[in-house]
Every structure is written in C-alpha cells, then in structure tokens.
Design a protein that fits this description.
This protein is mainly α and 313 residues long. 69% of the residues lie in helices and 0% in strands. α8 packs antiparallel against α9 and α10 runs antiparallel to α12.
Length: 313
Amino acid sequence: MSINAPVNPPANHLSNQALASSNKDVSKVERNHSLWSLAFKKLIKDKVALSCILVIFGYVLVAILSKFGIIGANWAESVAASYAPPSGDLWLGADIFGRSVLVKTLMGTRVAVSVGLITVMVSVPLGIFFGAVSGYFGGFIDEIITWFYTTLASIPNIMLLISLTFVLGKGITSVYIALGITSWIGLCRMIRGEVMKHKTREYVQAATAIGASNYRKLFIHILPNVFHIVIIESSLLFQTAVKSEVILSFLGLGVQDLPSWGKMIDESKMELARGVWWQLAGATIAMFFLLLSLNLLGDALRDALDPKLKGKD
C-alpha cells in the first residue's frame, strides 16, 4: 500500500500571491492618480469653468492690489460733488461725501475675498478633523462630536453669527472668528459619513492586516479618497462666507473702517428715494458676479471630481 503524502503548494505560490497583491495596490494608486488627471482634463475643457476661474482670479487680484495700496488707497477722499451721477470720469458716480463708488466697490472686494479665504482656511481643517475622528473611531467620541455640531446646527446660523459678533465686538476680526467657528458643521457631517463608509472597505482592512496604525489608515488611506468632497465644499463655504459678511455689515456688525458691499447696500437705502441708484448697483453687481462664478465653478468641480458621476457626460 502506498500512502499518499499531502501535496505542498509550490514554493513560489505565496510569493506569486504577494506579487499579485502588490500589483493590485500599484494599479489602485495609478487608477487614483488617473481619476484626478481625468478630472483636471475635464475641468480645463469646460469653458464655463475656465471663465469662472478667470473671474475669481480677477477678484483675488483686485483684493491683493487693494491690500497693498495699489488700488483704492485714497478711497475716503472726495473726488466729486455729492451724489454725482455716473459719467466718463466716474463710472459709478459718487456717494453723499463725493467719494468714488467704483473705488469703494473695489475696496469691498478686498473685504469679501479676505473673509471668504480666512473662513475656508479655518473651517475646512476643523470640519476634516472632527468629521474624520468621529466617523473613524465612533463610540463615545462620535456621540460627543455629533452632539456638539447638532447643537450648533439647531441654532439659526444668522442668529448665531449676530450673537458671536455682539460678544466679540464689531469689526472684521470678529467676522473672521464668528464665520470660522460656525462654518465647519456641514463639511464635518459629510466627512463623517464618508469615513464611516470607507473604513469598512477592503483597502482599509488590508492596511489593518499589515499592521498600519489608525493614523495611517485614516489620514494616508481614507482621507485622500474623500478629498474631492473637501474641494467641492470649500467653494460653497467661500460663497456662504461672502453672503454672511454682507448681511453682518448691512446690520452694522461687520466691517467698520473699510468699505464693504453690505455697508454700501445699507447706505443706499435712503438714497433710492432720491433716485441715487449707483451705489446699490455697484455693490450688488460686484457681489452677483462673484457668487455666480463660485456657484458655477462649484458645479463644475462636482461634475469633474464626484466618483458617482464618472463616465457621465
């Protein structure tokens, strides 16, 4: 009788499996890079998106030039008669003190862009951190963070902003702080949901199997796969911050020592009865084109970056 000995797998069987796994990881990385490349190519082919980027760049350029005094350094000087109408020299006329409305509008761009940028710079890291930690660890940490942002979200946003500016005092710094600490809630919710979904996927389980730390799994593996949400949400946060600053300045709680679109709209309330429309026109037109460009660019970013829309034209 012959006893059949167990047949051992080939010596290179495990190495082949490891090689196949490695090739899958490489292909996954390449695929991830290719998705970003395809998104970029799709975005630069979108004429509307490119036009919006140029418009936004123009606003940012005006804000930078006004910050360094190249534009609007003498905005407070009287250059014409009170309520001088629009003309070849004064495209948007003058206000009650004879100041150029066009220069005030350009200076208002500086306030709007700075508020939008600082709000994004403050709220996006907060939203990413709290959303990622809450979604990944769950349990008591998730309950505390969820309770905190749910409590904040239950308060009407404009009332919360007004309350904070009353506490912090009037001025642009108070606007920065108030918008920065209240604008992260929506992004936090979205990141939390995406992290909860991704942490159970195979690539995270594979990272766990090879001994990857929680930090590496969360910040190296998961967050890069949900970063498209951050980019899209940032464009929405920017325009929300601009609108909120206009409202606060209109109510007299925002910028005090610089022209602001909200202050210009507030000053034009009594001017309309006298037929002086150009200050209101300057502020609203400038705000309209900035917000329209941000909206259209946000839609283009969503179409280009959202994985659910890949392959749809």
